[in-house]
Design goal:
A hairpin with a 2-residue loop joins strand 4 and strand 5. The chain is α+β, with helices and mostly antiparallel strands. The longest helix is centred in the first third of the chain and has 20 residues. 18% of the residues lie in helices and 43% in strands. The chain has a single domain, classed as OB fold (Dihydrolipoamide Acetyltransferase, E2P). It has 1 helix and 5 strands; from the N terminus they run αβββββ. It is globular and about 25 Å long.
Amino acid sequence: MHVRSRPWGRLLVSSVLLLGLCLAATGHLDAQTRLEGDGRVIKVDEAEHMLFLAHGPIPGFMPLPMRHGFAVHRDELLKGLKVGDMIHFVLDVQNDILGISSIEHIGDRQ
């Protein structure tokens, strides 16, 4: 039986592995790290517990704007989010996973 993989799935796995390798190599983030940024929602994936954003710089972590998927620490953070929503988010490390722990709507753009 042939199983067809989804492009987002491959991208997600690659992104998470790359991010993990970068963090392990630099030792830059630890359980006390709290990072904040603003972004526009480009995809909500409740099944994979992921939020994909087009975000601006994240001071102390990503100096340039990017499109990136982030794990969310609590599924309820994804409830009510839709593509195009503008949000302020908080990233931190919980159970050795860098993910979004807080989301605040800052407006919607079409």
